[in-house]
TrEMBL record, chain A:
Matching PANTHER family: CYTOCHROME C OXIDASE SUBUNIT 12, MITOCHONDRIAL, CYTOCHROME C OXIDASE SUBUNIT 6B
Keyword Disulfide bond (UniProt): yes
Subcellular localization(s) per the UniProt record: Mitochondrion
Domain of life from the UniProt record: Eukaryota
InterPro entries registered for this protein in UniProt: COX6B-like (IPR048280), CX6/COA6-like_sf (IPR036549), Cyt_c_oxidase_su6B (IPR003213)
Protein name, per record: Cytochrome c oxidase subunit VIb
Keywords for this protein: Disulfide bond, Mitochondrion
Record carries keyword Oxidoreductase: no
Organism: Cyanidioschyzon merolae (strain NIES-3377 / 10D) (Unicellular red alga)
Alphabetical list of Pfam families matching this protein: COX6B (PF02297)
Residue ranges of the TM segments: none
GO annotation, cellular component aspect: mitochondrion; respiratory chain complex IV
Automatic annotation (TrEMBL), chain B:
Alphabetized PANTHER family for the sequence: CYTOCHROME C OXIDASE SUBUNIT 2, CYTOCHROME C OXIDASE, SUBUNIT II
Name by which UniProt lists this protein: Cytochrome c oxidase subunit 2
Keyword Acetylation: no
Biological process annotations from GO: ATP synthesis coupled electron transport
Localization (cell): Membrane; Mitochondrion inner membrane
Domain of life: Eukaryota
CC per GO annotation: mitochondrial inner membrane
Organism of provenance: Cyanidioschyzon merolae (strain NIES-3377 / 10D)
Membrane topology: Multi-pass membrane protein
Ranges of residues in domain Cytochrome oxidase subunit II transmembrane region profile: 23-118
Keywords assigned: Copper, Electron transport, Membrane, Metal-binding, Mitochondrion, Mitochondrion inner membrane, Oxidoreductase, Respiratory chain, Translocase, Transmembrane, Transmembrane helix, Transport
Length: 79, 261
């Protein structure tokens, strides 16, 4: 098991509503992977934070959408 | 039952053991015992408000009874013929303003301190379903990418063991460490639910498509009971919440077992 840590408090999302925090972490994670590869430690860190914040179902749905090319957010090809 | 209560009170009085009340009891009118600074704040604020409440209640009752007793057609044959007094209007406008301002200050201080999120060490996700809660501990990932993810269903009445609470026990409790900042992300997979535990001073709506964040800092070990607090369908009353707070080492052991067992 890795050390006891989780996604840190993010100054961009100071409110109760953390929906955007999860979304931004997920997009950052995937963009990082596209740019630097899945084994990059920074990308792994973003992945950990995104998984900490987003429900499993959401991540699965977005992964599926990315595979189908229907993901509504930014991806490596479009940016 | 009465003799048991007497013994318990005797023991507490002489410092033998303190038994905390983290679940509702019959005919309860007060709060459950607080386990977080937030709940301590809520209880203290309530008590402060009750001070003003009693003051106002006694004063208004006194005025009312005095008016009823002294002003009636028997005693006052001629009715007074004025209906306005500037001084009294000023007094009964300004004094309530002062009282409201006095109680607003600690109220806002508490409100904003509840919203304060300190950098957490643990994130737990609580997802409401019709009709159960499911929990995710995604901070920890097993060797094959597995995460800790389980459902928490009510224990039906016929399966209860002696000492268990009716309508409050679940098959899988969530375990969190004491004296640690825990972030709870509440959401829902279908309709609006609400994740609430009175002893911890938390109540947070789980809304589909939205993630709500609350912060827990539990100060003592214990088992804390709560229930869904937003009408969510026919079994709304049958999706309890049980939080077990354990020392950090035990929490890590539990995580290890969940991941690698």
């Amino acid at each position: 098991m890795e050390s006891l840590s989780t996604a840190p408090r993010d100054e961009r999302f100071p409110h109760t509503n953390q929906t955007r925090n999860c979304w931004v972490r997920y997009v950052e994670w995937k963009l990082c992977e596209e740019k630097h590869g899945e084994e990059e430690s920074e990308c792994k860190k973003f992945g950990r934070w995104a998984r900490a914040l987003c429900p499993v179902d959401w991540i699965e749905r977005w992964d599926e959408q990315r595979a189908n090319g229907t993901f509504p957010g930014p991806s490596g090809e479009s940016s | 039952m009465k003799s048991v209560n007497t013994i318990v009170i005797f023991l507490i009085t002489f410092g033998y053991e303190v038994i905390y009340n983290d679940a509702p009891v019959l005919w309860q009118t007060g709060f459950q015992d607080p386990a977080t600074p937030v709940m301590e704040g809520i209880i203290n604020l309530h008590h402060d408000f009750i001070f003003f409440f009693i003051l106002i209640f006694v004063f208004v009752l006194w005025i009312l009874l005095r008016a009823i007793y002294f002003f009636n057609s028997r005693v006052n044959k001629v009715a007074i013929n004025y209906s306005h007094g500037t001084l009294i209007e000023l007094i009964w406008t300004i004094i309530p303003i002062m009282i409201l301002m006095t109680i607003a200050v600690p109220s806002f201080a508490l409100l904003y301190s509840i919203d304060e999120i300190i950098n957490p060490a643990v994130t737990v996700k609580a997802v409401g379903h019709q009709w159960y809660w499911s929990y995710e501990y995604s901070d920890y990932i097993g060797e094959n990418g597995e995460i800790i993810n389980f459902d928490s269903y009510i224990i039906p009445e016929e399966d209860l063991e002696i000492g268990q609470f009716r309508l409050l026990e679940v098959d899988n409790r969530i375990i969190v460490p004491v004296n640690t900042h825990v972030r709870v992300i509440v959401t829902s997979a279908d309709v609006i639910h609400s994740w609430a535990v009175p002893s911890l001073g938390v109540k947070c709506d789980g809304i589909p498509g939205r993630l709500n964040q609350i912060s827990l800092f539990i100060k003592r070990e214990g088992v804390y009971y709560g229930q869904c607090s937003e009408l969510c369908g026919v079994n709304h009353g049958f999706i309890p919440i049980v939080v077990e707070a354990v020392p950090l080492d035990n929490y890590i052991d539990w995580i290890q077992k969940k991941l690698y067992a």
